[in-house]
TrEMBL record:
InterPro entries: GH, GH_1_N_CS, Glyco_hydro_1. The lineage of its organism: Bacteria, Bacillati, Bacillota, Erysipelotrichia, Erysipelotrichales. This is Family 1 glycosylhydrolase. Belongs to the glycosyl hydrolase 1 family. It comes from Amedibacillus dolichus. Keywords: Glycosidase, Hydrolase.
Length: 508
């Protein structure tokens, strides 16, 4: 048998992309609550407000600018697709915010969990909306109604024997923390996050065993606001923010290990591995360096417990001095993670020079197009073999168990009159990726603990704000304008995945 007996088969979501009820139950505003849907934004793309080095590849891309107090802000993150997308500093009347209602999981969670159970899920990766627990982030006491909501969700999951895997911070910090402190750029956030984690650890210790600290911690490279609440376009502040996040993650790991020995804590990285464009040594060196700085820096620090030398040198060259305090070394050393979790969607290409090379269109991070790979309708390269490569790379580097907590195909689906959705394209995508996971386990001996496919039920897209970019096994009747009954319909992939789980991946 390739997949271990207790392999964690399941699906993944994030609170801000599916819960809705953005102000119910005492919840405060989060940074995700002020993200508009690009297609509906009344703001215009304002190229002059964007840094010149980014302007050249903005055509056909969706991106976020942030406006504070009416002023044009800097470009803080790219969004893909053809629509402009904006974060607003507060709720603006007449603006459309798709996350406010999302798919209303807040009121449909029983129905949704029943569908997950019907597919045979062993695990469900979800996040806690921090602003349900501490509406402003720095409140003295937690919000009981928010805590009680997740009690109900966990109880419902456990009723079906589904293991919750909980992300503590998935692009949804309380908005007030961003406004007041510039998010994680401020060291105060380390303690504020720690307090929030201590609260939920204590409350759910009997219900949740697997925790992830920060979703795609390395995505700060292209979106410091979404990732860490840093609204200024400032590389130094971004570096501070990720340093503080890693410190916070280490403190939380240490707390878990000391007080809750049954917990397993993981880091979560976005694992887009760069291939060298050619076999030229210079291209290979570039691939190595770009992987180090974009991905390995984060996992190296959280898995090994210290800042890697290549990053220290990189910061020195850029004249950035991290705000390191004396006690930090011990914090990082003691707070290493138990396992590594990854999102995997695509791979990239690195070359010593990209002059004259064809660029990939639509990917979140600007990179060279790979002529050997097809792309999704949103321009993301599709590379199943890259997943096996990534799993091998990570296992060789760290020898820690790996959980794949995001992977999937965003695609347009058609709901037929008889309420069926024939998503053969999604089935082939997942089939091909899972076959590579199987090989990584069976042939290469990689320790993979679980696979939770992204957006197991349709939800709001993070990068485009669209509902029409669908990942789910379950179709949700809602469109990009917020119309629809919110009724749920299993797609063909629902039954396919059910069979894969039932047979523990034997037929892949
Ligand atoms: C990951 C995020 O980057 O990709 C998710 O953790 C996101 O929140 C997912 O939804 C897919 O991206 P998108 O933009 O298609 O929703």
């Amino acid at each position: 048998m390739a997949f271990p007996e207790h392999f964690l088969w399941g699906g993944a979501t994030a609170a801000n992309q599916l819960e809705g009820a953005y102000l119910e139950g005492g919840k405060g505003l989060s940074i995700a609550d002020v993200m508009t849907c690009g297609g509906k934004s009344r703001f215009k793309v304002d190229l002059p407000a964007i840094k010149p080095e980014y302007q050249k590849f903005l055509s056909k891309m969706r991106y976020v600018t942030f406006e504070k107090d009416g002023q044009d802000g800097a470009c803080i993150a790219f969004k893909q697709n053809t629509y402009p997308d904006h974060g607003t500093p507060k709720i603006v009347e007449g603006e459309y915010y798709p996350n406010h209602e999302a798919i209303d999981f807040y009121h449909h969670y029983k129905e949704d969990i029943a569908l997950m159970a019907e597919m045979g899920f062993k695990a469900y990766r979800m996040s806690i909306a921090w602003s349900r627990i501490y509406p402003n982030g720095d409140d003295d006491a937690p919000n009981e109604e928010g805590l009680a909501f997740y009690d109900r969700v966990f109880d419902e999951l456990l009723k079906y024997g589904i293991e919750p895997i909980v992300t503590l911070s998935h692009y949804e910090m309380p908005l007030a923390l961003s406004m007041k402190y510039q998010g994680f750029a401020n060291r105060k956030l380390v303690d504020i996050f720690y307090k929030y984690c201590a609260t939920v650890f204590e409350r759910y210790a009997g219900k949740v065993k697997y925790w992830l600290t920060f979703n795609e911690i390395n995505s700060i490279i292209h979106s410091s606001y979404v990732n860490a609440g840093v609204f200024a376009n400032d590389r130094q502040l971004s570096e501070y923010a990720s340093y503080h996040q890693m410190l916070a993650s280490a403190k939380v790991c240490q707390l878990a290990h000391e007080k809750y020995p049954h917990f397993k804590i993981g880091c979560m990285i976005s694992s887009s591995i760069p291939y060298a464009y050619t076999c030229k040594p210079e291209d290979n060196l570039e691939a190595l360096k770009s992987y180090d700085l974009r991905v390995n820096y984060y996992s190296d620090t959280m898995v090994r417990g210290y800042l890697p030398e290549y990053k220290i040198k990189d910061l020195e060259r850029r004249g950035i001095k991290l705000p390191i305090m004396e006690e930090d070394r011990a914090i990082l050393e003691k707070g290493t993670v138990d396992f590594i979790s990854i999102s995997y969607y695509q791979t990239s290409i690195a070359a010593a020079s990209d002059d004259g090379l064809k660029m990939a269109e639509g990917n979140m991070i600007r990179h060279i197009a790979n002529p050997h790979l097809k792309t999704s309708e949103w321009g993301w390269s599709i590379d199943p073999v890259g997943l096996r490569y990534t799993l091998n790379y990570l296992y060789d580097r760290y020898h820690k168990p790996i959980m794949i907590v995001e992977n999937g195909l965003g695609a347009f689906d058609t709901l037929n009159e008889d309420k069926t959705v024939h998503d053969a394209y999604r089935i082939s995508y997942l089939q091909e990726h899972l076959s590579e996971v199987k090989k990584a386990i069976e042939i290469d001996g990689v320790d993979v603990m679980g696979y939770t496919s992204w957006g197991c039920i349709d939800l709001v897209s993070c990068s485009s704000g669209q509902m029409s970019k669908r990942y789910g096994f379950v179709y949700v009747d809602r469109d990009d304008d917020g119309n629809g009954t919110l009724a749920r319909y299993p797609k063909d992939s629902f039954y396919w995945y059910q069979h894969i789980i039932e047979t523990n991946g034997e037929e892949l």
